[in-house]
Structure formats: C-alpha cells, structure tokens
Amino acid sequence: MRLSNLHLLVVAALAWPSLVSMALAFSRADYADALDKSIIFFDLQRSGRLPSWQRLRWRGNSALNDGRSNNVDLSGGYYDAGDNVKFGLPMAFSVSMLSWGAVEFGDALRMTGQRGNTLNAIRWGTDYLLKASARPNELWVQVGDPNSDHQCWQRPEEMDTPRNAYKVDAVRPGSDVAGETAAALASASIAFRDIDNAYSARLLSRARQVFAFADRYRGKYSDVLGGVVCPFYCSYSGYMDELVWGAAWLYRATRENGYLKYLIRNGNALGGSTQSVNQFSWDNKYAGAQVLLAQFVMQGVNGLQGYNDRADSYICAVLPRSISWSSQLQFSPGGMLYTMGQLNMQYVTSSSFLLTTYARYLSAARRTVNCGGRQVTAAQLFSAAQRQVDYMLGRNPRGLSYMIGFGRNPTRVHHRAASLPSIRTSPQKIECKLGFNWFNSWNPNPNVATGAVIGGPDQGDNIYDSRSNYAQMEPATYVNAPVVGVLSELAVGRRY
User: Fold this and answer.
1) Minimal CA–CA distance to 98: which of 129, 74, 73?
2) Are 185 and 206 in contact (CB under 8 A)?
3) Which residues pair with 291 in a beta bridge?
4) Which residues of 112-125 are buried (b: 16+ CB within 10 A; e: fewer)?
5) How many CB atoms lie within 10 A of CB 299?
6) DSSP 457
7) What residues form DSSP beta bridges with 76?
8) Which one, 73, 136, 161, 246, has the greatest CB density within 10 A?
9) Dihedral sign for Cα atoms in the order 250, 255, 258, 264
10) Is there a contact between 347 and 281 (Cβ–Cβ < 8 Å)?
C-alpha cells in the first residue's frame, strides 16, 4: 500500500532510533512471560463454547451452530487471524506447529509450567479436526464466507454473516488441506501419548485415514473451492509438500516401514528430497518435512539423505551472511529476517523454530552443517534463532515489541474482537457496518490482544500503526504457533 504524507509522518514518529532497545537483553523470566502470553493468544482465537479453563476472560461464546445446516457439528476450532472465518489449512498447520513444539520441547514446556496450557490449545484444535474428518473420504475445511465476513466488522460473539461450510471429498479433492490435517493429527498423537493414550490412539487412527484420503484422491483444494479460499489461503505451493509433510509425521508417529518406503519411493516425484526452499509457512511445508526427516538420517536411517541435504540448504539460506555464505534472504537494518510484506513475522517465527529444532538435532548427533564451506554449529543456529525472537520482542531500532501485551506495542491491532468493546462489558449488539466506526478510529484498541504476534515491520524496520494496515498489524495463529517451542527453550536457559 502506498502511504500518504500523513501516513509517512505516522511512520516517522515511530521510527526514532533507540540504542537502548538494541542493547536490551531479555532474562529467562522475560522469555517465560512471553511464552505464557504466546499461548494465551489462542484463547483470543477460540471459536465455540468457551471452556472453563479459558484464561482470556473478555471473550465470549461464538459460532455455536457452525455446521448445523449441513447436519454436522463444526463448532469449536480457531479463527485464523483478525476475522471470524475458520480456514482449515492454516488452522491445521497451527495445530501441527503447536504439536511439534510440544513433542520437541516438551521437557522445557514442563519445566516452565506451560505443558498443560499448550496441550489444551492443541486439543481445542484437534477436537475440531476430528469432527471435521468424521466421515471417510470427506473433510470439512472451512466455515464462514470470507467475502461477506470482510464486508463487516463485528465481534465473533454476535456475527450474523453467513456461516457456510465447505468440504473436500473424493469428487472434489483437497490433498493439501487433507495432508496438513493428517500431519496435525499425527503430531498431536505423539504430544498426547504419555498423557492420554486413548486420545492419542484416536488421533493417530484418524491421521492414517485422512492421509490415505489425501493420497488416493489428489488435487488442490483451491481448484475446487475457488473464490471461497482464494485469495485468502490459496494453495500456491500445490499439494505435494503436504503429502510429504503428512507422511513424515506419520512415520515419526508410527516408525512403520510403510511410511518410510512411501517417503523414499516418492522423494523425487513429490519433491521432498529434491525441492530446495527458503521459507516455511502454512502454504509450503517442504522445509518442515525435510528438517523433521533429517533427524532420522542423523540417527542412521537409510534412504532419506536427500531430505537431509535439502534441510541443510534451507538452514543455510535463512542464516545471516555473517554466519552463512549460502544466505539467500534479506535482513532489515535492525537484523529482522525479511521475506515478504504480508505478515512477515510468520517467517521470523517459523525459521526460528526450524533453526532451534535443527540445533537440537545437530547437538544430539554431534554434527555441524556446511554452509558454503563454513561449518556452522548448533550453538550458532540457536543464537540466530534467539536474535530473531529478541527482535520480535523489542530488541530492534524502534524499541517496539510485536507481541501484544509484552513490552511497548503498536496499539491498533487489526483484529475484530480486540478492536471492538467486549461483549461482556458492552452487550448491546454492534451491527455489521457500525463496527467500522471503531475500525476507522485512531483510538487504541479497547481490549488487549494478549500474546498476539502481529505481521511486523517492513524491510526498513518501520511499521504503520493503523487497523487498515492488515499486512503489518494483523496477527494469526500460524504466526504464534512456531514461537511457543522456541520461547520454552529460551525460558529454561537452554544452551547448545
């Protein structure tokens, strides 16, 4: 978006240099506080009848009748971002990343007292995914008409926009969203394995079923759902990365040769062992699957070396040039990894997660990674991840934290529930168009979107604090989900 002179002045007002903020060091207690808030954000995004353990008290019940017109119960789950739509692809990815964090860093989450809160957040998502996949060869992938939703600015508790439900099936396939759902269910089954064996088994059984559906009936869900999911969550990368991702998680969950052989046999055809990428997101899962499978190569499993090589390539690509001669991405003057202007912080959190996870794998295997002739250690990977998280929390030229409720924040987060008076304090209905009075206001949001990691600044470290600036000011579950595991490691003072 091109800014007017007035807008540029607003940016300039936020762009004062802060040597103090750049020198800021966070303590373990600071990271623990940020960790707690990062999980609370999922309370803000929760749909359905809120549970007794809901910690964010100003939210209320919403969308209780989702799916009823289709004779299916689709209540629950999460809204993806600042809107009131439940998009299945980013929701399942968020659950996968929360689950991977719980699997990989469960000891750190336990030490910080956050394992229970993390599992609660995961289960709210997996309970919904179980309902959405209850019938064989059928998966409900969205509730809410995004085009109607974006014409209104309403609290989720009283929205009256259409709650149409959309599905994929054998006739209208969606291997991408189904593969991601299988990954979410399989990873969560590991997270719950020593907590609730029966629930874990149920998740794994459903993951097998959904993955078989994804693999047998191949196609992009955005090809069959068109304008309902595009341009919001089009499957730009296609569905092959999700098939690799789903199979990788099923292999980790089961250690069965069938899934291993699938990954080896299809490594080239599906691109998992050949595709080098420099981003990991709700859309493109190759880097996540490659890092996940690299652990098995380091443990001596044969046939997956191509995945390990591609994982090395990703890791080297996202490191700054001071560490890696293979670096491919831009960094802002303040040191933030910059990929694109639309919710760039998602790439900051996802790369930080993969760097931290790879550091864990390298440390256990006593290995380094070769980046353009430089041997990069696990400690260097973890340090690079920490610098990105520190930037997010306020160690940047503006001295702004892009996690709301932690440090000094922008105040006009692009989020319906946070920007409108809470229904608990102002129960009078706010009609569809009337809500834009708050949207267009320059007043700070009346409610704190605790823990929300917003889209973040541009490549020059600048941010425009306006609700209309959704690219920088909107949070999303898939931005928060990866940082939970990293913050848990920092909170316990982990060293590699």
Assistant:
1) 129
2) yes
3) none
4) bebbebbbbbbbbb
5) 10
6) -
7) none
8) 246
9) positive
10) yes
Q: Quick one: fold of 25-491?
A: Glycosyltransferase (1.50.10)
Give me 462's structure tokens: 């600048």
What span, in angstroms and rounded, lies between the C-alpha atoms of 68 and 162?
12
The one-letter code for the residue type at 192 is F
Enumerate the domain spans of the chain. Answer: 25-491
What H or E segment, with its residue span, contains residue 140? strand 138-143
Phi, psi of 173 (to 5 degrees): -75, 160
349 with 341: CB under 8 angstroms? no
d(CA 265, CA 236) in angstroms, rounded, equals 24
Amino acid identity at 299: Q
Q: List, as one string, the DSSP characters of 1-23.
A: -PPPHHHHHHHHHH----HHHHH
Would you state the structure tokens that stand for residue 407, as one six-digit string? Answer: 């440090």
At residue 453, φ and ψ (nearest 5 deg) are -95, 115
Contacts (Cβ under 8 Å, ≥6 apart) of 24: 390, 394, 395, 399
Residue 330 is given by DSSP the state E
What would the two tokens of residue 148 be? 């109607």
Closest CA to 99 of 210, 252, 304, 219: 252
- Structure token digits, residue 372: 């353009």
3-state SS assignment for residue 165: strand
Bridge-based pairing of strands 337-338 and 330-331 is antiparallel
pTM: 0.95
* Nearest to 209, CA basis, from 250, 255, 263: 250
Q: How far does Cα 211 stand from its chain's mean position?
A: 21
Tokens encoding 444: 């700070």
- Cα dihedral 117, 83, 136, 285 sign: negative
pLDDT along the chain (496 residues), means of 10: 32 39 82 98 98 97 97 98 98 98 98 98 98 98 96 96 97 98 99 97 98 98 95 96 98 98 98 97 98 98 98 97 91 96 96 98 97 96 98 98 98 98 95 97 98 98 98 98 98 93
Distance between CA atoms of residues 431 and 428, nearest Å: 10
